[in-house]
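Let us practice reading a record.
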Amino acid sequence: MSFKTLIAYQKSFNLAMEIFTISKTFPNDEKFALTSQIVRSSRGVCSSIAEAYRKRDYVKHFKSKLTDADSENSETQLWFDFALACDYISSDDYSRLQHKSEEVGKLLNFMINNPEKFGTKI
């Protein structure tokens, strides 16, 4: 089994790619601020899930990496707020992205609370 089979990874990867595409429409003067931050944090969710999966032999490490993913997911939601407030995304885009991010958060919390379902040794 691979981390790529995890629903949380798949959904977070798809969300990160959608964010990357949308961020291309942000103004150039946001390139080193909002654009890089929202892309980085959304990709951080995926990478932390991948790292957690490789640490699943150690429950505390597994949970720690998943809480990192959850933190990155929350940070991504913050950047949605800025993108909306600056009129870089529509309220419809905001709602859709926020919903997808919340879904990823629920999956992460399930993994954190049920590590044994993901091959950890308790």
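A brief commentary: The domain at 58-113 is CATH 1.20.1440.60 (de novo design (two linked rop proteins)).
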